[in-house]
Amino acid sequence: MATTDAGSKARLETFEGINVDYEKAYQNNKFKIACVTKAISILPLRSKVLDLAQIRVEGSFSVADMAEYEVEEETLAGVFMIFAHLQMSYAAVHAAVYKYARALQPGEIIVLGQSPGDHHVKEESAYDETRTYVEDYNVPLVGEPLPTFLMSAKGQRDFF
Predict the structure, then answer these.
(1) Strand bridging mode 76-82 / 104-113
(2) What's the sign of the alpha-carbon dihedral 21, 119, 109, 129?
(3) What percent of the residues of the chain are helix, what percent strand, and what percent coil, each to the nearest 5?
(4) Domain boundaries, the chain
């Protein structure tokens, strides 16, 4: 399965069969933990998101293609896209991130989390001409190669 322009929902089957193994393998992932810890640390005290989470998380949940899901501007209190975009193309990730950033209420945060490509990509030629991302790069996931979109550390810093 290659990265696609819109395939986040189509790639659901990639994770459907390995969900418990994935949870066990990556529950202590240092990049994921650092990302969530940093995001929580910059949320303002008495943030509505934190207040709700302390009581109980309620909401409606659905499986949708994040590239195609429609959301109104300034309606979200926070967005976490952690490892949710690995099989999308750069163009689709870029469009989705900016769509969700516009959906944030003023002063709220968006978190885009992934391991930097620098840790995985061995061949310089795999990168795009700006050396900021790779598409369809095989990264091991629960022991199997998965064609993946990754940004370099520089690409992540310069993304916004």
Answers:
(1) parallel
(2) negative
(3) 35, 20, 40
(4) 12-158
Strand-pair category, 133-141 with 104-113: unpaired
Instruction: Report pTM.
Output: 0.66
Q: How far apart are CA 95 and CA 101, in angstroms?
A: 10
Q: How many CB atoms are located within 10 Å of the residue 62 CB?
A: 5
pLDDT at 63 over 80: no
Give the pLDDT confidence of 64-91 residue by residue, as tens digits: 678 888 999 998 878 888 777 888 899 9
CA–CA separation, 120 and 97 (whole Å): 23
Q: Identify which of 102, 116, 110, 114 has the alpha carbon closest to the alpha carbon of residue 80.
A: 110
Reference 92, options 155, 16, 8; nearest CA is 8
pLDDT band at 10 (very low <50, low <70, confident <90, very high): very low
Contact 92, 61 (CB under 8 A): no
Q: Greater confidence, 130 or 41? A: 130
Pairwise CA distance, residues 4 & 23, whole Å: 24
